[in-house]
Amino acid sequence: KGWANIWQAGNGALGLETSLPVMLTEGVNKGRITMQKLMEVMCENPAKLFRIFPKKGTLQVGADADVVLVDLDKFHSVVKHSPFNGFAIKGAPVLTMVRGTVVAENGEVVGQPGYGKMVRPIK
Fold it and tell me: Nearest to residue 2, comparing CAs of 24, 116, 87, 13?
């Protein structure tokens, strides 16, 4: 969109959107990292860093039931303004749940506007 109208251009380089598919492709699918280690690095550790663990970053009693289901065989294209342009991606999220409610499915946002909730650091 941004090629015709600069005000419709995306902001910056993609990172958050591509980080999981790239880690699935280059890490899990190639046997360089286990799925358990990937969950630790991308979920548990950031939650601990931001002091929101164990409310976030884990599946256990009392946690928010945030879940991402991935398809390790799904091919995903990366947009041309990504640093991964032309990179073959195999593995992508197919369903995202926040607090037990589906908010994204097969690349489409299905959650209700305003469903997000501020999570404050735990003391």
Answer: 13
| Element holding 47 (H helix, E strand) | helix 45-49
Three-state DSSP state, 94: strand
Q: What is the pLDDT of residues 45-63, one digit of tens each?
A: 999 999 999 999 999 999 9
Closest Cα partner for 107 from 80, 82, 70? Answer: 70
Looking at residue 107, the DSSP 8-state letter turns out to be T
Joined tokens for residue 121: 């650091």
Counted residue by residue, the chain has a size of: 123
CB atoms within 10 A of CB 68: 15
pTM: 0.80
Burial (CB < 10 A; 0-12, 13-18, 19+), residue 4, is: exposed
Q: Give me the residues paired with residue 77 across strands.
A: none
Query: Could you give the CA distance from residue 38 to residue 25 in angstroms, rounded to a whole number?
Result: 12
Amino acid identity of 115?
A: Y
**Which residue's entry shows tokens 């970053």?**
57
pLDDT at 2 over 80: no
